[in-house]
Design brief:
This protein is mainly α. The protein is built from five helices and no strands.
């Protein structure tokens, strides 16, 4: 059985890994948004999916703060345009706090 490290350091490593995964996902999602062949349909669908999320079972598993952050992230990602850098959505979301 592997030795356990300092719990606080372990938690920081896990948070760092989650942040890295979020940044990577943001790059992928940003690319998909920026190259979407039917941007208007994407916008309409995303607005509908956000409402489903906010009123559905997934949102009920999150705290109010997490729901607000998730909604903010979706709204920032929805505002991406083809000229923006892939990480601009993540940067905007982090500045909202």
């Amino acid at each position: 059985m592997p030795a356990k490290g300092n719990p606080v350091e372990d938690l920081h490593k896990e948070i760092d890994a989650l942040y890295a995964i979020l940044a990577g996902q943001t790059v992928v999602i940003s690319s998909l948004i920026r190259t979407h062949p039917n941007y208007e349909a994407y916008q309409v669908d995303l607005a509908g999916m956000l409402e489903v999320f906010l009123n559905g079972p997934l949102a009920r598993t999150l705290s109010e703060e997490q729901r607000v952050k998730a909604q903010g992230y979706v709204e920032v990602m929805a505002s991406l345009k083809a000229s923006e850098s892939p990480l601009s959505g993540l940067q905007k979301m982090l500045r909202r706090d």
